[in-house]
Sequence to fold (265 residues):
Amino acid sequence: MSDQLRDGSAGETGQFEICKARSLDQIEAVHELQGTIWGSAEVATPNTLLRVMAEAGGLVLLAKSAGEPIGFAYGFTGRTSSGLNYHRSHAAGVLSEFRNSGVGRALKLAQRQAVLAAGMDRIVWTFDPAQVGNAHFNLRRLGATARAFRADYYGQRVDALSHGLPTDRLIVEWFLGNSEEVELARLRRRANLASVDVPDGLPPHHGADPAELKRLQGELRDGLQLALSRGLQVIDFDAETRSYRLAELPASFPDPAEGTSASGA
Ligand SMILES: CC(C)(COP(=O)(O)OP(=O)(O)OC[C@H]1O[C@@H](n2cnc3c(N)ncnc32)[C@H](O)[C@@H]1OP(=O)(O)O)[C@@H](O)C(=O)NCCC(=O)NCCS
Fold:
């Protein structure tokens, strides 16, 4: 397959293109973008590891506009305890001035295209459930699901997006197969789904009281953990009501990829 995966038009920001990053220059561009987007070089995956991922069964994608790097997504191959392979996406980001123009979605669709071509049918990643924009993007826009919650997954992080809070994460599974997509669309149309609201005051913002943020995060954590412990899974996010929508996935769905412990252990 060609290294050029996708191109598109990012509204006022102009044309963009997405390719597999392979050369050292491209790998270095992905490395630098991480530092810029998260405001800290400390959380960036080193370019040595990115290079190995690109060469050894992983996937490193770079989006460019007018020849300049504007976004990336990268990951490696994961394996469930029952031996199913999936793509474990670790990070994706778009420079703030290029956001909300379809670049992030195009990166995920390019990832999907490459993962299907490699014979896998699931992409897994994590996101902070307090980030309602990410929730909308992952669950509503892309159609992913979440069956597991992990409290303080990475421990303390010092990047600009974490606000010093515990790094709580939902583990997202994006099923690329037709039968799961049809089943999920059917479930999402149901009116009486269980829900967990994101408390007002989240996502965290600069200047907010840290103790209050921690309390609100705890409230969201308790709500999600309780719902998951009752055997429900997150299948959607409603940005208007700021609530996660949950239902029981059919037993025909493949085994969860990782971290099904609702206790977050
Ligand atoms: C998540 C991210 C990659 C999306 O990229 P993008 O180019 O803006 O994505 P698109 O333009 O294709 O789609 C944006 C959609 O997601 C929503 N969205 C995603 N993240 C959002 C955020 N932080 N705040 C508000 N909305 C967000 C937008 O509302 C928009 O929805 P709409 O099309 O229904 O209006 C980008 O916001 C980003 O880099 N965020 C910082 C890093 C990050 O959180 N990465 C993901 C976790 S690893």
